[in-house]
Amino acid sequence: MKRLFLSFVLFFGAFSNIFGQDIQDKNQMIFVDIFPIVTGIVSGGVGLGFGYEHDIGKYFGTGGEIIFVSDFDDMISYNIIANGIFYPIRTRIGNLFIDEGLSYRRRKSNYDGSNDDIICLMGLTNIGWKIILFNSFVLIPEFGIKYDIVTFYGDEAYKFGLNIKTKIGWMF
User: Fold this and answer.
1) Domains of the chain, each with CATH number or no CATH
2) CA 146-150-155 angle, 5° bins
3) Which of 82, 101, 93, 81 is nearest to 36 (CA)?
4) Where are the alpha helices (DSSP H) in the chain?
5) φ, ψ for residue 18, nearest 5 deg
6) pLDDT digits over 67-82, tens only?
């Protein structure tokens, strides 16, 4: 019975404006990208991302993010990302978006005695949904691709890959 009630509430909330409020005056957002935590745990360390986004009009926005992953022993990696965001569909409860960005990536590792130092410029293309709850709280799942545009130093083994982000933020 509890599952049926919870399913009904989630269905009703997803397809109505039960949580939606007027957010026209809120055009800035700060967020924490929690997916690098998973990457850090897999590598035996820690990871985290912090970012900012600013809406420029109704359908466009710009932003940036810094992602850090390290095991504090053999590997350290950071990305500095600048991106532009296009919102083709905006509703009161959430916004579909397409995100294009450039990332400066630096990764140093010392696995198996090989000293790898990689510096590259990467392109990112993501699609996601910005879910707005309780007027200011934001949950953003996004999925996309990343590709190596230019490798300045080192040998980047993966020129192309998947990009997953899960952001939690606050609009103001």
Assistant:
1) 29-165 (2.40.160.20)
2) 90
3) 81
4) 2-14, 35-42
5) -65, -35
6) 998 888 888 889 999 9
